[in-house]
Amino acid sequence: MRGSKRLRQVVVVGSIGLLGAAGSGAMRAKPAVAAGIGAGEQRAIWRTGAGQVTLLPHSETLAALGLELQTLRQTAVSERFPQIESSFAIDDRSASSSLAFTTGPGGGFDLLLGGRLQTSGEMLLGLPDGTRLAVGNLAFRLQGSGGGVIDTLNTNQEIFYLTSGLLQFKRADQRFEWVGLDLYLNKAWAVSAGIPGAAETPIATVVIEAAALPAPELAAELAALPAGESAQQAAPRGGIGPDVITGEVDTPVSDGQVGAINAYAIGTVSCNAGDVPLEWFASTNHHPVISQNLFRLKDGRFEQIGQSWLKHGFTALQENACFNDCQATAGNHLGVHCSDPYWGGLNDNQTGLGPKFEVNAFTGFFLYPFTGQGQTGDAIYKRLQVHTADVDPNQNGGALYYAEGEYIMPDDAAAGNQFNNASYRRVTFTNNPPTYTLNVTDTTMRQQTAILAWKANDPQVTIITISVPGDGRLQLGYKVTNLGGGAYHYEYALYNMNSWRSVRSFSVPLPLGVSPTNIGFHDVDYHSGEPFDGSDWNASIAGGSITWYTVSLTENPNANALRWGTLYNFRFDASSPPTLATATLGLFNLRPLTSGPANGGSSLLRMIDASGSTASSVAAATMGPS
């Protein structure tokens, strides 16, 4: 979305009464981080005015937790969700009840300076033991270093906190929006209330809508802002070591069609957000490789529909796409706060595209020279391949598409900075068969994997991050939909950000007597000679669970495991409402890998680290049938 940014966390401070008595407990939130506009750009400063805060309760989650969230006194109506009866007016009589933010010259959201929003209204929070809490006059404030205590009408208890969310400035309407915020119970408060497990999953989604007012009275604050800081970068400044991020996704190329497959490429701009230059040596394995992925959100399902081979970097320009203080170096390094553009016409050059199977995305290690180096083929060979039917506008009414770029680099990984390398951007397809030209729209969402677009478009979606011991990360998204008549649809999307160990099974517990129907699976095709078997995962119901699986490493080293940079989907219907559940993810490779030989090697076996973790699975909190 134009001019938008994700913020990490805020705290909700409420006026709480327990039948007239106060409870206790508070939780401090993590600092929010925001960063850089380009050189020569000018800011404007704004504050929020009249508006409302709307809560969209997760009814299935609340029921599963034994909780109730009921509106007693609504004081506003949401423009986005007028049918929701849980909107609370923002008290705009004082400038102290506002958030301050800046925009860049193009009108895009730039930087949230913080502040507080005081609302009016009252809700009832029911607990599993029958306790009923009156929750009212909620105040929302940005919590970071130097954040203060907010006086509210009664006890100042903090029983909620918020995470994530997408900030937007609608220039034409002079509107500020903060959408997709997850509302949790404060962990410390939940412990004191005897319900610690209830703090582990969001119970509602929050949307903030307010007028945006020019704030010339804040000119001194605007002048005091450090140069080069902007929300569009969204990266921690001053990190230790080299830190590559995908600063822009742009300059798409439509390469043609062979049979029922179309090929594309996206341009990517790398930025070094660290404090040490990034290595960029062309004829070694000390340069970046760049992946390109395509995703579709259609009918509530977020699926990966395409992937490319990897572009191998060869030289680094020294530009200012993310910062305005590039410390330029020679082309065999990317300087601190410098950027380097690889437009679509470079990222689709077949001679420089190598396969994924030779890359460990967690350590950044890859074999060099790489398989297929210098080889060319037809119009779709090695490029971002997509089934034509998946992008034909006539067959995909209402669908949204997202392109993702990710940089993998050994020195970035060695510094522990390999978890912020991917960014995504919304794209569209022109209805001009058979080409269906690829176009970019909106802005690049920096340091965000594309699966987060599912959550940004649907507040009922939950996304969690899973760390694999001694290895990389996975992200699990899920949503439960009430189909009516006692039936529910369970939808899961599992994304492998950079785990070498990969996933070979996904299991969700089932209660006795529940028989799933409409069981489904979706993966993404490998192509152009990648060795992996593309067979769909099998599904079985046994031992009180439904499990999707592929064969083990010993049965087939090239089995269709969920490897890095791919997203697989699992789904079913059941005649049982949701409850909190623990999904089990079986791992494919037996142990993690080291960085490997400095200059590559003839065998991937040389990368095995015998001292690494040998855990065969990881667990993830989710929702399943009750």
Summary keywords:
disordered N terminus, 7 helices, eight-stranded antiparallel β-barrel, 6% helix, globular, 41% strand, 626 residues, 36 strands, eleven-stranded antiparallel sheet, Immunoglobulin-like, 3 domains, mainly beta
Number of domains: 3
pLDDT < 50 stretches: 1-41, 143-153, 228-239, 592-613
- Mean pLDDT, to the nearest integer, reads 81
Portion of residues in beta strands equals 35-45%
DSSP summary, beta strand count: 36
Distance between the termini: 37 Å
Structural class: mainly beta
Rg over alpha carbons: 25 Å
Main sheet characteristics: 11 strands, antiparallel
Principal-axes geometry comes out as globular
Helix content range of the residues, please? Answer: under 10%
Counted by DSSP, the helix tally is: 7
Describe this structure in words.
The structure is a single chain. This protein has 7 helices and 36 strands. It has 626 residues and is mostly beta strands. The chain has 3 domains: 4-224, no CATH class; 237-455, no CATH class; 460-626, Immunoglobulin-like (Sandwich), CATH 2.60.40.1170. Strand 28 and strand 29 form a beta hairpin. The two termini are 37 Å apart.
Brief rundown of the structure:
By secondary structure, this protein is mostly beta strands.
